[in-house]
Amino acid sequence: MNDSGVDRELVARAQQGDKRAFGLLVEKYQRRLTRLLSRLIRDPAEVEDVAQEAFIKAYRALPTFRGDSAFYTWLYRIGMNTAKNHLVARARRVPTLSEIEPDSDEAFEREEQLRDIRTPESELQSKEIALTVNRAMDELPEELRTAIQMREIDGLSYEEIAQMMDCPIGTVRSRIFRAREAIAERLRPLLGTSSEKRW
Questions:
Q1: Per the domain annotation, does 198 fall within a domain?
Q2: For residue 24, what pLDDT band results from cuts at 50, 70 and 90?
Q3: CA distance 66 to 12
Q4: What is the torsion angle, in degrees rounded to the nearest 10, for the CA atoms of residue 176, residue 177, residue 182 and residue 188?
Q5: Engineered SS bond to 122: which of 4, 105, 117, 176, CB 3.0-4.6 Å?
């Protein structure tokens, strides 16, 4: 039985009230979920609390899980929503893409360079850029936002994203390209770049 088959079997058993089966799913994905959440939440103790809350929510919602996506994809969404709710409750903003282990793509290097110059003007511009990126992210259609978050925040490969979003790899590339273009459009006035250049 392959990995997804094992998950389906454990989920089916857990849905019938087998707590040990759900415990095995927790053991299997706890480290992965914690690593994901630690990119959004800095305090390790808070990460543990949010991970535990996400698993509790998943357990309670298990009767509604229909298996349309992989169990981890479903758990990932619950974890992300739990983390965002936690940050909002603590009156914190969700970190911008560039603050969380930026990809080697040159897309976000410009902002990294700006953040290295510590003048009041550059600090102010850096905050404005972060706010602009956050707003642009919030305005993206869900499938674009999810794809760029998985790529830039979670560091997933295009293949992994295609699998988790259940779509062809070409669609993933297109969504990420469109998301970056939409963010770039909002950043151009701040960075003073022309429409021919992305950043």
A1: no
A2: very high
A3: 10
A4: 130
A5: 117
177 located within any domain = yes
Separation CA 155–CA 36 (nearest Å): 9
Q: How far apart are CA 30 and CA 23, in angstroms?
A: 10
Domain that holds residue 20: 3-89
- Whether the predicted pLDDT of 175 surpasses 50: yes
Q: How many domains does the chain have?
A: 2
Q: What is the DSSP string of 64-88?
A: G--SSS-HHHHHHHHHHHHHHHHHH
Residues 6 or more apart whose Cβ sits within 8 Å of residue 5: none
Give the whole-angstrom CA distance, residue 161 versus residue 146.
Answer: 9
Rounded to an integer, what distance in angstroms lies between the CA atom of residue 110 and that of residue 98?
10
Using CA atoms, how far residue 124 sits from 110, 117, 118, 188, in Å, is 15, 11, 10, 16
Contact 136, 125 (CB under 8 A): no
Same domain, 122 and 106: yes
Q: How far apart are the first and last CA of the chain?
A: 47
Residue 9: alpha-carbon gap to chain centroid: 27
Task: Return phi, psi of residue 151, to 5°.
Answer: -75, -55
pTM (2 decimals)? Answer: 0.49
How much of the chain, in percent, has pLDDT values that exceed 70?
A: 77
Q: How far is CA 22 from CA 8, 58, 71, 82, in A?
A: 11, 10, 11, 19
Residue in the block written with tokens 């927790």:
26
Q: Which two tokens stand for residue 164?
A: 């988790």
